[in-house]
Task: structure prediction
Amino acid sequence: MSLYALGDLHLFSEDENFMDKYGRVWVRHKEKILKNCSKIVKDEDTIVFTGDNSFAKKINRCFDDMDFIKSLPGRKILIRGNHDRYWESKKTDRLNDTFKGELNFLQNNFYTYEDYALVGTKGFTFEGPFYLDRFGNIIDIDRDALDHSKVLIKREEERLRCSFDKAVEAGYNKFIMFLHYPPTNILETESIFTQIAKEYGVSHVVYSHSHGKPRFHDSIIGEYEGVNYHLVSGDYLNFKPEKIL
Result:
């Protein structure tokens, strides 16, 4: 058994070529997902999809995309991303009921892999606007947007702590943490999410959301202060699931 992760599937059954305009890596990306998952992931494995799974806006319009995910090998766990509008924050239980036994939706709950608790939430980080001088250096930020981001980050912190609390209550003390957004932005070396990772002795933090070569290194990749950070954005991995354990 192995644990894999892959983010940003960006499925949209209503327009299969929707992502082509974002670069060559996205052309026929759904075929890459199927090919790579089928080659790498076994039925006995677990794979976590770290958000932006479907562009569908309502649950009743996401079934084709969910059917595709269901067709992939392994036990599937999904995190909510910023584009997952079909997944209203208060309807995680409904999704778990609808796809019971086929897909698992991770928010305000936890799942397990061997003796690890798999915890997570969408997360959030301030992404601007940033104001630059003529040399491209950041000289200021949008203060209103920053204030709004603090509200969203606090909400996601509460959801993440809920996930941890339920895992701890169930007796788990080894954790792997999943986010959609990066744990830090380009101005930060730590955040509430990195602090929580250290607080609970998390061994791995897995995230996505960062797209294109200029953005791949916006946050932490690799070992940092005893925690292993993994960027698993689909275009970063060319849609090949990354083995976490």
In short: The radius of gyration is 17 Å. The chain has six helices and 13 strands. The chain has a mean pLDDT of 93.
